[in-house]
């Protein structure tokens, strides 16, 4: 059964697309956009170059991350990443845009779940919410763990819960058709879907993944067709609620982290769409000079990339083993091997890092995890 389109026009909501969103990560974004402001938001390439991995890990060798990306053919190796034409740049339209997006797209779920302590049973059953207790329980166990719903204030969360509709789809059913107008944003509770752009399968996603945000964020036609790979349970959020509650946060995170992430060498196998999903799941932390970020022997639950500043890696009995600068990563060993932290990382200057929790690390980094494993210093 097709979902009805929401009667409200999204341009009437408080957040106007040109003021709150950046261009979508599409090579053919120009063809999709009417707002010149959105096109102006296309980032230029960053001069960041060189890469020092932590714990004696990977060294990118020649060139910057973006150079490596643009020389890599679509769908080569662990994933396609042609950044030269992305984010509304001058790339070729049509199938090239599709190829920019992903082989190996990974689903996206944060480890953090909705904290039930913040949402008493009574408040969850607010009058605006038409969900049954059974549906609420399922939501709390699954969909509410989606990073997009984390950190919502209580009121916003209730509005989202009140607006979510359960949608059951059969294997093979078309949930979204490329080129259509956007009506709903979806989160997968159970089952799996595949993404098809110009008749080419570009990715798959399972429980916890979300999709359908691009058309709602940018008032653009659907960028991909999404079909159910098996009988699946989805939750649909209408575009007005999406734009009112989730748009600002999603757009600002993608804008804030997009430029930085595309030049991080270790992420070079991720395509534009995967980087957007990664941005959704990141948070930033800052440390003063001398502060310890992770301590050898501690239990580790986060992966880090240096956004700004310098840090040192030290090991008991060995002293300093590594310097970390912008784009360096650390914290991967504990997540890869379920080991305690193998070294201490200390801020040498004021330090800003982006962090990804363990679930996000496993689900969103995909091909990157293989590279990290190959360079895991504890295995050499
Ligand atoms: N490679 C891709 N290109 C475009 N959209 C994709 C891709 N992979 C997944 N998608 C999702 O498919 C959705 C189709 O509808 P939207 O364009 O609204 O939002 C899109 C994304 O959420």
Tell me the layout of helices and strands.
Elements (H helix, E strand, L loop, with lengths): L16 H4 L8 H4 L3 H5 L24 H7 L23 H7 L19 H4 L8 H9 L12 H10 L1 E5 L4 E3 L7 E7 L2 E5 L2 E6 L4 E2 L1 H6 L6 E4 L3 E7 H23 L10 H10 L1 E5 L4 E3 L7 E7 L2 E5 L3 E6 L4 E2 L1 H6 L6 E4 L3 E7 H7 L2 H8 L6
Antiparallel strand pairs: 1-8, 2-7, 3-6, 3-8, 4-5, 4-7, 9-16, 10-15, 11-14, 11-16, 12-13, 12-15
Helix pairs in contact: 10-11
Adenosine-3',5'-cyclic-monophosphate binds next to strand 4, strand 5 and helix 9.
Organism: Magnusiomyces paraingens
Protein name: cAMP-dependent protein kinase regulatory subunit
Subunit structure: Tetramer, composed of 2 regulatory (R) and 2 catalytic (C) subunits. In the presence of cAMP it dissociates into 2 active monomeric C subunits and an R dimer.
């Amino acid at each position: 059964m097709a979902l009805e389109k929401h009667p409200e026009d999204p341009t009437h909501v408080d957040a106007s697309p040109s003021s709150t969103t950046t261009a979508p990560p599409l090579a053919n974004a120009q063809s999709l956009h009417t707002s010149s402001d959105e096109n102006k938001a296309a980032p230029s390439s960053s001069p960041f170059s060189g890469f020092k991995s932590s714990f004696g890990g990977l060294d990118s060798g020649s060139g910057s991350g973006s150079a490596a990306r643009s020389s890599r053919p679509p769908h080569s190796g662990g994933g396609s990443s042609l950044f030269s034409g992305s984010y509304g740049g001058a790339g070729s339209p049509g199938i090239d845009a599709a190829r920019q997006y992903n082989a190996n797209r990974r689903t996206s779920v944060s480890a953090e779940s909705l904290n039930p302590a913040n949402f008493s049973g009574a408040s969850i059953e607010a009058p605006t919410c038409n969900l049954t207790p059974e549906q609420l329980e399922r939501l709390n166990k699954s969909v509410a763990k989606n990073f997009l719903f984390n950190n919502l204030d209580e009121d916003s969360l209730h509005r989202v819960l009140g607006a979510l509709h359960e949608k059951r789809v059969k294997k093979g059913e078309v949930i979204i058709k490329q080129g259509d107008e956007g009506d709903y944003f979806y989160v997968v509770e159970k089952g799996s879907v595949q993404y098809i752009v110009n008749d080419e399968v570009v990715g798959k996603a399972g429980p916890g993944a979300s999709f359908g945000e691009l058309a709602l964020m940018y008032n653009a036609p659907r960028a991909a067709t999404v079909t159910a790979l098996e009988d699946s349970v989805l939750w649909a959020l209408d575009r007005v609620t999406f734009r009112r509650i989730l748009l600002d946060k999603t757009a600002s995170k993608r804008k804030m982290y997009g430029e930085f992430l595309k030049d991080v060498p270790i992420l070079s196998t991720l395509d534009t769409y995967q980087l957007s999903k990664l941005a959704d799941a990141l948070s930033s932390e800052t440390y003063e000079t001398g502060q310890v970020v992770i301590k050898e022997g501690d239990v580790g639950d986060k992966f880090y990339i240096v956004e700004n500043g310098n840090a040192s890696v030290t090991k008991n009995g060995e002293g300093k083993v590594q310097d970390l600068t912008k784009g360096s990563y650390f914290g991967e060993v504990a997540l890869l091997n379920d080991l305690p932290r193998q070294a201490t990382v200390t801020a040498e200057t004021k330090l800003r890092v982006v962090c990804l929790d363990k679930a996000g690390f496993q689900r969103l980094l995909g091909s990157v995890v293989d590279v990290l494993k190959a360079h895991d210093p504890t295995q050499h």
